[in-house]
What we know:
Layout: H1 6-17, H2 26-37, H3 43-53, H4 60-103, H5 107-135, H6 139-153, H7 158-173, H8 191-211, H9 213-227, H10 236-247, H11 253-265, H12 273-305, H13 309-312, H14 316-343, H15 348-362, H16 367-381
Amino acid sequence: MEKPRFITLFLAFLRLGTTAFGGPAMVVYIKDLAVRREAWLDEPVFNDGVALCQSIPGATAMQMAAYVGLRSRGIPGALLSYVGFGLPAFIFMVTLSSLYLRYHHLAEVVSLFAVLQVIVVALIANATLLLGRGLATKPFNVAIALLSALLFGLGVSPFLVILCGGVLGGLVLRHRKAPEAGKSRGELFHGKPVFIILFFILAGLAGAYLLDTVFFRLALTMLKIDCFAFGGGFAALPLMLHEVVNVRGWMASTTFMDGIALGQVTPGPIVITAAFVGYMVKGLAGALVATCAVFAPSFLALIISAPLFDRLKGSSLFLSATKGVFAGFLGLLLYMTIKFAILVPWDLVRIAVGALAFIALIRKVDTFYIVLAGALLSLVIFR
């Protein structure tokens, strides 16, 4: 396979990131770029990357961008691809957050988010449905999901809920036969670069603490969220809701819903909502701190786990624990759907809008167009 130049990797993923609507659906376009058009990777290696990125914390599309860079040009290539793919989302989100902070009290903006909050409920419900399709066929998974939703509703930390799901999955399902481990794709782990990245993360935390304890709490919160965000970007939302609204009290649930809506207007993963949170807490600097923190652990996890994945995918303990974690997240998303639905002042119009949005999502209409249609509809209905 031909090795791309570093600047080529960065610019290719920067261009792709400007149109990265649809979250995990962007994996198809990343494959088209890396396998079909540029031939940086062959298809079996790319498919291994998809399996890996779905098994570790973080937004799947962002992780796949880094994986392509890692396989083609090592850790520097992974970092450039990761930053290039995520940079447009950050710029868009900061711009929209600034406008939101300045104008969200205006009647027109209030009416706009009256519709967008309904669409957010449909989005979370659809994410719950998509995750549940592969898990709800097993009674054990359903039991973990319902137990997780109940525990979350009772105020138990979602991080503890996720850990319990992984432990239960590992204990109950471990006897299931795992696929045979494949041959190694080659050693990618280099201790020195990994320790350098870890050093910068810790140094950033120390610097944030010395500069302003709010920056430190913001960074630490987002780092913790990303460490547990198995199952893609939507998996981070219940954790972020818990930390930002319930624990820290940085904003109301309805404001957080507005941030999720803005995250759907921007390209890139839904977890870019972290930039909105950071901007609301500490302006542009807060948005930068929150964004770096919410992506750093999953990037490090990819770098460390890529050379080990051939062994991990042959481990029954790893696979069963992962299933338990995903079932736990299913319960958290179910609770989040119910919580957000309760916050909406439902009437016949909102019920109709929510139903239409949910049907459109099921039929795989691009999320961007659903949000855009909702925004235009709000100008007509709620003006």
